[in-house]
Design a protein that fits this description.
The complex is a heterodimer of chains A (844) and B (275). Chain A is an alpha/beta fold. In chain A, α4 (68-81) packs antiparallel against α7 (162-169), α4 runs parallel beside α10 and α16 (348-356) crosses α18. In chain B, the strands form four sheets. Chain B has a four-stranded mixed sheet. Chain B has a two-stranded antiparallel ribbon with strand order 2-3. Classes of the chains: A alpha/beta (844), B alpha+beta (275).
């Protein structure tokens, strides 16, 4: 989230798209209710089905699953054609005025640089035009030059007129117009709109570009960096935010730095690769030692912005991991770090594909249940049989822990797809089970969706011999280190020299992990209370995750002040914006709303017309922010921590610090995306209709593992999608075993419209078989008015909605819906396409 | 009489998360009963459990009413469903053992120790709420968490509600709040919004509702009525039960005498002759 949960109350219009917020974020929903009560917030819900969120929305608008870019592209076109954009904001804070390189082209769904054989782009033409110096980007402040990002975007979306959009999306035209009118009203300087999304947006072959479309809309309307605005990802699970912050993703180094590959042979190559703009500065490009690099950084790197500090963050992390063994002479132990193969992908689907081929020996599953939650679950379950060992760490013996039992291989009779099944005697995988304790039975922090890190104290003692995840990992690391402790071999040094020690005796203490994550000065081991501005790349600082730097402060008496433990329930904002800056701590540097430079006019002094209450920071030309530097006069002050250089005057304080250009990007230059600088509509991999926007059948940059499993609409005529219900939690391991919750939703069910029910002679409560080319499931049919057929390009198309939270364990049971979903995903993130595929349905 | 305390349920704020449902089961320690004929009945293409009615192990639930009309399109109306704690409760009137009492703060309290499981109340209740529990041979229903209220706590459902749809407080204040809310809703897209429970059954109920549409769209009786034979029982039989016994005894005495007289008059005496 760019903003945070409490901030939802500051919005004028909330657009919930691809999220069933009321069901899956019931507590967050109350802040929208507060907005309604206090300022008459209007809520729009755009979704393929009428849900409990639609009930509380002021406006519900149906849309066929997988057509978000068409829907939002139409909105971009509507805003531009009707001049509804916030012009001053767009000109000052975005790259709308930047001129784009002449080589950049777009034709029939393909951007310049496409390689058909590799299904990937060479992005060298996705760049700006530069002045003679090669680094200053050419701009047209009037936004009228045909090659400026704004005009290119206007041209790109001209094709997305209202009639074309409703033809693609199957949205009733009057509803679409209502949405356009209501949401674009936030383009007025005194109005702010907020977009909330979840897996309905991301779990597509165009998931990243769906989010990019939000960014385009929000920047046009001037809604980024302002209270009540922003693009707000509603995380599917508390602390998913924390998990990604800590780089529990295959391609990230902690703090959202691209993880090194085998092409990054040494530390400097790695640092150069992740420091934008360094390739154009000879001193930086040619640096062969850290000293030379530091000199180049001190001299400045254009088009790099805050990422110029990359080396400081990386070296501090290496220092935290390998301590005294990380020195400048040995490149801070960079060679100890595992590198990924640049040609390989290690995402969930790739990993299971590799496992299926027998390339993996073992698997450690913590807080995950792929037999229920993984896409193409039949194949993923079969892949588990190829393992030598599997460790499952969970509260219950879930479906993954028991994938080898007879029950796990029961499949509905009369299915059409061929599915591999196994008997326990044929499975050689040795399964270990580690009982884990529940969230209330352990201590530690969790980062919620608004980036707030909050400490949670233990509420109950653990059951039996169950242990916390931290204890389990701590033991594992200690045992591994014990095994290697006498090894003289060079290749074992990453293990033998790894720093480890988070507690006394057997019990690790979460606060010690928090201390290392936050960072400390190597010399005196004192926490770096001042935040990441103090990090150095000379080995004098150690910091686990740079964005968390400063979460450990110091009390006046010198003792640790662990800020996530703070519980000051007082709103520090003068206008009642609900910042609660002393409740917990939030990254980065306790900045509650990021890009908040945009909450005030470019001059830094005048509020946006009629919106003085929502100013977060302003420029005070007279203040001296640092008493040790009295010569520096003028600073950004206000209720929130400024998201720009504190002492940079307004004309130099760029609003999007982490972007190389420093500005919000309509045109996403360079390697921002693998599938193009502008979002373009492509149909899902399996779709019943042809792409009406261009002749590309599917996102051209998406990897397709199983081309033979592409379901044809002749065999599988209905659009399938999956979702959750409020009564169950994720794969249901936690809730289907609790009687009171299992009672509320006791059966696996699929939802279909009354129209489809009539066609297939399916009545409410009938048992049905749903089939795809990957598998079949049996479920109870729920025939409902809440699902309606879509009229796409004049033809009627039906949808089958399946709850994906069931499995064969617990009280509430049923076939996992993911036995139907395909192994295909987003071109950038590899998130699986759970939300749009083709299926057939019939009575069992 | 103490100031009346009640629950106010605002259907416009409810998201049907059913936290109240589980909190009620937790607070009353009621077992889960699995009904695998879920989505069973025709027309029940919605998320109702237990066929949309309370039972011996379920004192309250959220009901899901799907409606559709050409103007509003599809609407999914949620309703919190439990004992209405009527101001003038029929159950108390028909109970032969006086197991029901109206507490001075407004709850209709049912004493399971006095209950003999005769189920008169089941048939008398205009909302069909009391349910017979076989294993204890008693009637069960929502208690308005009278034990929690006695301790100064709010009922379990109100305490758990994340959206503020369920409130607990003084009835007069909540009624004021409800009136203002209905006024707001009528001006903001719900022209038929209404209060339910203020005047229903004449004296009202001690559960108040803010409905976004007419009561029938929520599966509530628009004009709840008391059964005819209940009226006879409650208005005539029960109040005069004390008179009826001597009356009946007197009646049989008269009958005895008169039949004797008639018999004597007919001269049966001579024929019978048991004397």
């Amino acid at each position: 989230m760019t903003n945070h949960m409490v901030d939802l109350k500051n919005t004028d219009v909330a657009l919930i798209m691809g999220s069933n917020m009321a069901e899956n974020h019931p507590i967050g929903m109350k802040w929208l209710g507060e907005g309604r009560r206090v300022r008459g917030t209007k809520i729009i819900h755009v979704d393929p089905r009428y849900t409990r969120t639609s009930v509380v929305a002021d406006l519900y608008c149906p849309m066929r699953s997988g057509t978000d870019i068409a829907f939002l592209g139409g909105m971009v076109n509507y805003i531009i054609q009707n001049k509804l954009y916030h012009e001053e904001y767009v000109k000052a804070y975005t790259n709308a005025t930047f001129l784009v390189a002449d080589g950049f082209e777009f034709e029939d769904g393909l951007f310049s640089g496409y390689d058909t054989a590799k299904r990937s782009y060479n992005n060298s033409t996705w760049d700006y035009q530069y002045e003679e110096d090669g680094t200053t980007i050419k701009k047209d402040p009037t936004m009228s030059h045909p090659r400026c990002a704004f005009q290119l975007m206007a041209k790109h979306y001209l094709r997305y007129d209202i009639d074309s959009v409703v033809k693609i999306c199957g949205t009733p035209k009057n509803k679409y117009l209502e949405v356009l009118k209501l949401y674009t009203s936030t383009g007025a300087p005194n109005k702010v709109g907020n977009i909330m999304y979840a897996m309905g947006i991301t779990q597509h072959t165009v998931g990243s570009q769906n989010v990019k479309s939000f960014a385009n809309v929000q920047m046009l309307l001037g809604n980024m960096g302002r209270p009540g605005g922003g693009i707000n990802a509603l995380r599917g699970e508390n602390n998913v935010q924390g998990a990604t912050d800590m780089a529990l993703l295959f391609d990230w180094f902690p703090g959202y730095i691209s993880h090194p590959t085998n092409a990054n042979k040494d530390l400097l190559t790695f640092i150069k690769g992740v420091t934008p703009g360094s390739g154009k500065v000879p001193a930086a490009k040619g640096a062969t030692t850290m000293a030379e690099w530091r000199a180049a950084v001190a001299a400045g790197i254009p088009n790099c912005n805050f990422r110029i500090n990359m080396s400081k963050w990386i070296v501090s992390t290496l220092k935290a991991w390998w301590g005294d063994a990380a020195t400048e002479e040995n490149q801070f132990a960079y060679h100890y770090m595992p590198k990924r193969d640049a040609a390989k992908n290690y995402s969930h689907m790739s990993m299971f594909e590799a496992m299926y081929k027998g390339e993996l020996d073992g698997l450690f599953v913590m807080g995950s249940n792929p037999v229920v939650g993984g896409p193409n679950a039949n194949k993923e379950q079969a892949a588990l049989t190829k393992l030598k060992w599997l460790v499952s760490c969970d509260l219950w013996l879930n479906e993954t822990a028991e994938f080898w039992t007879y029950r796990a291989w029961e499949r509905p009779h009369g299915g059409s797809a061929h599915v591999e099944t196994f008997a326990p005697k044929d499975i050689q995988t040795e399964v270990f089970f580690l009982p884990a304790c529940a969230v209330y039975e352990k201590e530690g922090t969790a980062a919620q969706t608004g980036r707030w890190v909050q400490y949670r104290w233990k509420g109950a003692d653990e059951v039996g011999k169950s242990k916390s995840d931290l204890w389990i990992i701590d033991q594992l690391a200690k045992k591994i280190k014990e095994l290697y402790k006498d090894s003289p071999r060079e290749e074992d040094k990453p293990i033998t020299q790894l720093t480890w020690g988070y507690g006394h005796g057997e019990e690790p203490e979460p606060i010690n992990v928090g201390y290392e994550v936050s960072g400390y000065f190597v010399a005196d081991k004192k926490p770096i209370a001042g935040g990441f501005a103090n990090l150095k790349d000379d080995g004098s600082t150690a910091c686990g995750v740079w964005i968390y730097c400063g979460q450990m402060g110091l009390n006046p008496d010198g003792s640790w002040l662990y800020k996530p433990m703070k519980r000051d329930n007082k709103d520090n904002s003068k206008a009642g914006l609900g910042l609660y800056s002393n409740w917990g701590w939030c990254w980065p540097v306790n900045r509650r709303i990021i890009y908040n430079r945009c909450s005030i006019k470019p001059d830094g002094i005048t509020p946006w017309e009629g919106d003085a209450d929502r100013v977060l920071i302003h420029w005070d030309p007279a203040v001296v922010s640092d008493p040790t530097k009295p010569e520096v006069v003028g600073a950004w002050v206000g209720d929130d921590v400024c998201d720009c250089t504190k002492t940079a005057p307004p004309e130099k304080a760029v609003p999007f610090l982490m972007r190389p250009e420093g500005y919000g990007c309509f045109f996403a230059a360079g390697a921002s995306f693998k599938d193009g600088p502008f979002p373009e509509h492509y149909e899902p991999w399996e779709s019943p209709v042809k792409n009406l926007m261009n002749s590309q059948p599917v996102n051209p940059a998406t990897k397709i593992w199983e081309p033979d499993k592409l379901g044809a609409s002749a065999d599988y005529p209905y659009i399938g999608t999956t979702y959750r219900v409020v009564e169950h939690w994720q794969t249901g391991a936690l809730t289907r075993t609790l009687p009171w919750l299992a009672e509320l939703m006791p059966n696996m069910f699929v939802e279909i419209s009354e129209e489809l029910g009539a066609i297939k002679d399916i009545r409410n409560g009938d048992k049905v078989i749903v089939s795809t080319s990957r598998g079949d499931i049996e479920a109870v049919a729920c025939v409902t008015k809440r699902i309606k057929p879509f009229i796409v390009n004049g033809e009627q198309y039906h949808m089958v909605g399946a709850i994906w939270q069931y499995g064969f364990k617990g009280y509430a049971t049923g076939d996992p819906a993911n036995r139907l979903t395909p192994h295909v995903g987003d071109a950038n993130t590899m998130i699986p396409e759970y939300k749009a595929w083709l299926c057939n349905i019939r009575r069992a | 009489m103490a100031r009346l305390k009640t629950n106010l349920y605002d259907s416009s704020k409810c998201t049907a998360c059913r936290g109240c449902f589980s909190a009620c089961k937790d607070s009353n320690q009621l077992p889960a009963v699995f009904d695998h004929s879920y989505f069973g009945g025709p027309g029940n293409g919605t998320y109702d459990s237990k066929d949309g009615d309370t039972d011996a192990n379920t004192y309250m639930m959220i009901r899901f009413n799907e409606t559709e009309d050409p103007v509003d399109g599809v609407r999914w109306n949620f309703l919190k469903w439990q004992c209405m704690h009527c101001m003038d409760p029929e159950c108390a009137k028909v109970c032969p053992k006086s197991a029901y009492t109206k507490l001075d703060w407004g709850a209709t309290f049912h004493d399971e120790d006095k209950c003999i499981g005769c189920q008169y109340c089941v048939y008398a209740c205009p909302f069909g709420i009391p349910k017979y529990r076989k294993r204890t041979d008693t009637i069960t229903k929502c208690t308005l968490c009278y034990e929690r209220v006695a301790e100064g706590l709010t009922p379990a459902c109100a305490r758990t509600c994340p959206t503020g749809a369920i409130k607990f407080g003084n009835r007069d204040e909540l009624l004021e709040e409800a009136r203002a809310r209905v006024k707001y809703l009528r001006a903001n897209g719900f022209p038929r919004a209404t209060i339910y429970g203020e005047t229903e059954l004449g004296s009202g109920t001690n559960k108040l509702y803010i409905l976004t549409d007419t009561p029938d769209k929520f599966g509530l009786p628009v004009k709840p009525q008391v059964e005819g034979n209940t009226i006879f029982w409650q208005n005539w039989v029960q109040p005069y039960a004390g008179w009826l016994i001597p009356l009946a005894l007197g009646g049989s005495a008269i009958s005895f005498v008169t039949s004797r007289l008639v018999a004597n008059k007919n001269g049966g005496h001579a024929e019978g002759g048991h004397e």
